[in-house]
Amino acid sequence: MEAKANDDDLSPSSFQEKEEQDNNDDADDAFIEINPPSPSPKKTLGGLNLGLDLGANGGRQDEDAKDTSETGALVREAESEVMIIFELPDGSQTEESFKMGQSVEVLKSFVASEIGMDMEGQQLYLQDKLMFDPLSLMDFPEIVASRGEDVYIRVEGDLEGETRK
């Protein structure tokens, strides 16, 4: 029958082997190599450089400069601005700049807050065309074609009292 060495075995040879093993473990812990981060860290998968830049901007590139796709063009169009001049029922005018992607409802909300005209009672007309709430300014070819020119929108409905402008 063979005796197994354990932690309680205090023979000189087993004690010396255990001490050397403990010293080796401590030596491994003492030398930890820390590499400084590279200036432009790249995402890797299994050692393969995928070329994904994870720098300060989260890897995103300037979309306006890089995105020439149809979607990018639509986003740029929706973010562009147009000056809208509202012709009110009493003959006065008010104006505001809006993004092309904003809806007719946003325009009605502006008129309601600026003039005090109830949104449900408003009707907006571009030339003689009624502008419906779910549509955006980009849905009207006349506005898209205006490029930098002011757009006049006629507001119809009941004004309560005097206008604010």
Q: What is the residue-averaged pLDDT?
A: 75
Strand order of the largest sheet: 4-3-7-5-6
The CATH homologous superfamily name of one domain equals Phosphatidylinositol 3-kinase Catalytic Subunit, Chain A, domain 1
Helical percent range?
A: 25-40%
**Fraction of residues in β-strands:** 15-25%
| CATH class group of one domain | Alpha Beta
Record field, number of beta strands? 7
Query: Radius of gyration, Cα only, in angstroms?
Result: 36 Å
Largest β sheet strand count, sense and barrel closure: 5 strands, mixed
CATH topology of one domain: Ubiquitin-like (UB roll)
Q: Helical segment tally?
A: 5
CATH architecture of one domain: Roll
Distance between the termini: 107 Å
- Low-confidence spans: pLDDT under 50, at least 5 residues? none
Topology as a string of helices (H) and strands (E): HEEHHEEHEEHE
Shape: elongated
Secondary-structure content class: alpha+beta
Protein name: Ubiquitin-like domain-containing protein
InterPro entries: Ubiquitin-like_dom (IPR000626), Ubiquitin-like_domsf (IPR029071)
